[in-house]
Amino acid sequence: MNAGPVGAARDRLHQAIAQLTDAAGPAAGADEVIDALRVCEEARRALDRAMVEATADLQRRGVFSERGYRSPTGALADLLGWERFEARRRVLAADNVCDQIGLDGAALPARLPATATVFASGEAGLRHVEVIARLLDSGPARRLAPETWAGAEVQLAAKAGIYTPSELHTWGTQLLEILDQDGAEPDDTPPAQINELRLSRFRIRPGGTLTGRFDDAALFDAIAAAVDAGAAPRDADDQRSSAERQAEALAEVCAQVLSRGRLPETGGRRPQLTVTVRLEDLERRATGASLEFGGQLTAQTLRQLACDAAVIPVVLDGTGVPLDIGRISRTVPDGLRRAVTVRDRGCAFPGCDRPPSWCEVHHVREWQHGGTTALHNLVMLCSVHHRLIHHSHWEVRMIDGLPEFLPPSWIDRTRTPRRRPPPLLHPVGRLLTRPSAQRGRAAPTCSATM
């Protein structure tokens, strides 16, 4: 760490820890050791507050998104070596007990002002903040009138210094049940008999919206079964909403059908992904392109898409007239993909356990820069980590025929390579399967969320 205010503070902190350790050493009396424990807890809570404030500050500046992360949770986990639930706990606290910046740039007070006060004073710990935030975001809490909701937050904050987090959760749940005596209002309006799906592209930015309704039980069940197969939480700490999980599952189902499934023809051709590239962009090694439905693509997304997809490149001249329509072809042949699958056994990124069926094949050295479609230049990545490689400063390289990943310098100053642990072998030489496959889990998981 470079010399400066932070380095000087670190040195003083280490000195204080050393003094505290000496004061509670073997020569100290029992009361002194007990006092040392109390001081350690005070220091831990103070450090938690400092870490939450720093996280909130980086979020306000947009640092994590600028460096390729969709979520600060994934950035903190990679930066500090935390489990996702630990990173998510700090992010949740930062969102609720720190000042925020509105869309108009104006400063906004903390969402939980009473909780912020007891957290700042050290009366409440990080787990207390998490419990209060989750209670006040529950269904019963959302049904309360604003003034009642604010009063409940004050009562919960007042109990944080008395109750343990588990006791606070139990007490708070009972409080909200009392305040929300009527529960959700019943809706007796019969639904209209409608089966429809609308796809609307955004006018001024990439992407779009899907809205649909299916009163036909058979139609709805077919869609729900396909979405449910991939919409299970990735792990016990997956905090994505049900809507987020289902949206990502639907997109992944469609992507797998496009690349491997069978679909009816549309206008005399099977549905495939069409990428339109201007001739001048192609001459500049494709710095931009657009999708048939989804809008404009960035150069990074275009390169990610071209790694392992059946695409139709359509080259346009300066007036928009098609010059050439390429043939549909897979960048990575099936036989070569099987070889990559045998070697990587799914996403090769450290800590990820998504299986091969949920993964794409990435060119380590990009094809447009002379990279070959060969085993020594290919690595299997899930969509989360494929995007991370293309949109951040993470790098992947092949060493002795195996992939390893180099974190950005802001995560690890030494950029020490990271690899997934090698597979275990049975005493007779048989490769052991992944734990998730052994347990027969219904939904493959990925430990990283951005």
UniProtKB/TrEMBL annotation:
This is HNH endonuclease. It holds the Pfam family HNH. Residues 335-387 form the HNH nuclease domain. Keywords: Endonuclease, Hydrolase, Nuclease. The keyword Zinc-finger does not apply. GO terms for molecular function: endonuclease activity; nucleic acid binding; zinc ion binding. CDD domains: HNHc. It comes from Pseudonocardia halophobica. InterPro entries: DUF222, HNH, HNH_nuc. Belongs to the Rv1128c/1148c/1588c/1702c/1945/3466 family. The keyword Nuclease applies.
